[in-house]
Amino acid sequence: MDFQTCLIVDDSRIIRKVARRIVEGLGFEVAEAADGAEALTYCMGVMPHVVLLDWQMPVMDGLSFLRRLRDLPGGRAPKVLFCTVETRADRIAEALSAGADDYVMKPFDGEILHSKLAEVGAVQSPS
Predict the structure, then answer these.
(1) Where do the domains of the chain lie?
(2) Is 4-119 CATH 3.40.50.2300?
(3) pLDDT, tens digit (0-9, with 9 covering 90-100), for 38-87
(4) DSSP secondary structure letters along 29-94
């Protein structure tokens, strides 16, 4: 069976741990990165199927990472979910126009993440 990979990009170890538990429960192989630069390096080697992306991070923020990802060979393929505390509509629109597939508000739980991943076609819909 083909496994799907999910790259979790967040500078918070706790958020990465919570997200990892959720997406592993959905059958993903998980990799983690603490910032956009680390994530970009990972994607240059292995293009994940799904990226859960924090917005505010040191070194390279989520939006900068997303723009660079979409320019990589194969970089249009991953489904990217912004996981953010950002609620301003203009900022969310900016993320979507930069190539995000959807966004999830923090804090999120398994149910929310599952339904968002299903919306973008990354997993089966929760029954």
Answers:
(1) 4-119
(2) yes
(3) 999 999 999 999 999 999 999 999 999 999 999 999 999 999 999 988 78
(4) EEEEESSHHHHHHHHHH---SEEEEESS-SSS-HHHHHHHHHHSTTTTSSEEEEEES---HHHHHH
Please tell me whether the peptide bond between 126 and the residue prior to it is cis, using omega within 30 degrees of 0. no
Residue type, 78: P
Question: For 53, how many CA atoms within 13 A lie in the half-sphere containing its CB?
Answer: 34
Q: What is the DSSP letter of 4?
A: E
Cβ pair 20, 30 in contact under 8 A:
yes
Q: Which two tokens stand for residue 111?
A: 């149910």
- Nearest CA to 48 among 9, 10, 88, 79? 79
Between residues 1 and 14, the one the model is more confident about: 14
Type and span of the H or E element at 102: strand 102-105
